[in-house]
């Protein structure tokens, strides 16, 4: 057994293309998670719809992402690509988490802020948009960042629905030429290359926001 | 919600003691309970336009609740609050009154402003943004006009140089003066002051009280003021209400309440406050 | 309904594999978390560096990538074929253990300094201090997050069908292939996953209560049987385990 550097070098473009897909899924999925999570966190405060949403989010959080992916992929019309299914399912799954993050941020806004807004008769879109959410979101930026990294690390699950992300590419290339050690090791390093610096960045953010 | 006997659809006359004309604010048999705790117990009183009323009494006697009811931060349990001859805590529905909807409250409470013990400035906005937020987005004033008014008000409270500062960069006293300017920017007819100096370091209290004295002297805003600053209360208010256990124990002009209190409860309250160095 | 009742034994077989993987992975993760977590609190730089490297590496690599490496690369590298289930447990344990180590480290560091000083004043050795004073207090603080990690680990087991282990997700897919009924086939698995999660939550809650009782406190979740069923709060600070 030896490490074939030449081969590794040759397949790098293919692997990097896989990494590109991974990044795309992460970015678009995260956009869904950020916006849908916020919407859920706000709507959750209404009585009936809120309780239903809460139960749904609870269910999403206690069942595995990969089976959710496969399930939706099988039900989706064949015109919808695996990539689209992947982005939507990952986005919704993570929205169930970000919604809780936003909620904790919203609950952390002092009661006096709501009362001051009410005393000034501000309409609710200003109370939320100009006062509560800016304060709430600022507090939870590091936590939201942690979920971005977590989401990135969940993208290999898309191999289950045949999306050509990093791990899928590695599997294809590796098994075609019997060089799985190189293929999977490189994938592992690529993951470290992205997630370790981002984790350090998030910790900086945490310290900065904790100081305020 | 209020039982059927409460909402008479006419404002009760002859309660309270304004100077002659129709009272601006009327509390008619108002009850406020939090769970088992009765904070206001069938309270009747009224305030005349332009009158400045100070509410004193031990903590938990219901003073602050009165302000919070007027600001619609709480709902009455029973009884009706009237403002300007129209129901305030309730709305007319045909010939009887029903609890006010959120939309109705939003319309009615525009004429009421409040300054809080903890200032409650918006930390994510500058001083200027804090002041123009409501005039622009509630009254629909053009930005230029709101900005000009903000500058005027900041000059009055002595903070012209802080217009672009953030609240966190200000002292407590300065924050409270900004909060007063913010409330005045809405040109309220009724101003509610909820222990506005209680959270301040002693050396910062005077600056805030001076601003309030000036407002009292130069405007005819109706003021309801909960405070432990007895000198200020004596100087500024027309009438003092002494609260105890959700009821008015004694009321009268400040000279009488502070100089010649008749009720035992008032005497012991005043001596306890004065002993504490207020 | 008949569909599921008839095939229940097959689903239960799959669920049993899921439970085995969850328990195995959790046991390994726990040992690693305690070991490297405690190591991360030692003052000397070397053990701390080792702990940091473990945490960053195994947290940084996606669990599934780790699993593929164990299942496919390792046999080529060493000529030794791990049992697929064992490879799965190893990958999950290493991954979740890294998250757990961070929890252990920060919980130990959160024990008030005065407690450690009191133990020093009693002339306790480092291991006595840990065993008798620090860990019992840190333990109560670790448990809620451990609860989240166990649920995340249980969910993470669902990828093992990709390396050929027949777990609950694999059974759902087999059922679908043999009957063509996608919705029913998957609903069976979803419900079982949900139930397994509830049992795990209940178990972790009981542990939490016991730990808090030993410290003379009530669990933060409150007393009473209903509080036992309350779902674990999402870790809104660190997103631990996710």
Write the layout of secondary structure elements.
The complex is a heterotrimer of chains A (212), B (278) and C (242).
Chain A: H1 5-43, H2 47-62, H3 65-75, H4 82-107, H5 111-119, H6 124-154, H7 166-177, H8 180-211
Chain B: E1 25-34, E2 37-47, E3 52-56, H1 63-70, E4 78-83, E5 86-87, E6 90-93, E7 96-99, H2 102-108, E8 112-115, H3 127-137, H4 143-156, H5 172-184, E9 190-194, H6 202-218, E10 222-226, H7 230-236, E11 239-244, E12 247-252, H8 254-259, H9 264-275
Parallel strand pairs in B: 3-10, 3-11, 8-9, 9-10
Antiparallel strand pairs in B: 1-2, 1-4, 4-5, 6-7, 11-12
Helix pairs in contact in B: 3-4, 3-5, 4-5, 5-6
Chain C: H1 2-39, H2 45-60, H3 63-78, H4 84-110, H5 113-121, H6 126-156, H7 168-179, H8 182-214, H9 225-229
Write structural notes for this entry.
The complex is a heterotrimer of chains A (212), B (278) and C (242). Chain A is mostly helical. Chain A has a single domain, classed as MetI-like (MetI-like fold, Orthogonal Bundle), CATH 1.10.3720. Chain A is 83% helix and 0% strand. Chain B has nine helices and twelve strands. Chain B has helices at residues 63-70, 102-108, 127-137, 143-156, 172-184, 202-218, 230-236, 254-259, 264-275; strands at 25-34, 37-47, 52-56, 78-83, 86-87, 90-93, 96-99, 112-115, 190-194, 222-226, 239-244, 247-252. In chain B, strands 8-9-10-3-11-12 form a six-stranded mixed β-sheet, with helices on both faces. In chain B, α4 (143-156) crosses α5. The longest helix of chain B is centred in the last third of the chain and has 17 residues, at 202-218. Chain C has nine helices and no strands. The two termini of chain C are 34 Å apart. The chains are: A mainly alpha (212), B alpha/beta (278), C mainly alpha (242). At the A-C interface, α2, α3, α4, α6 and α7 of A face α2, α3, α6, α7 and α8 of C.
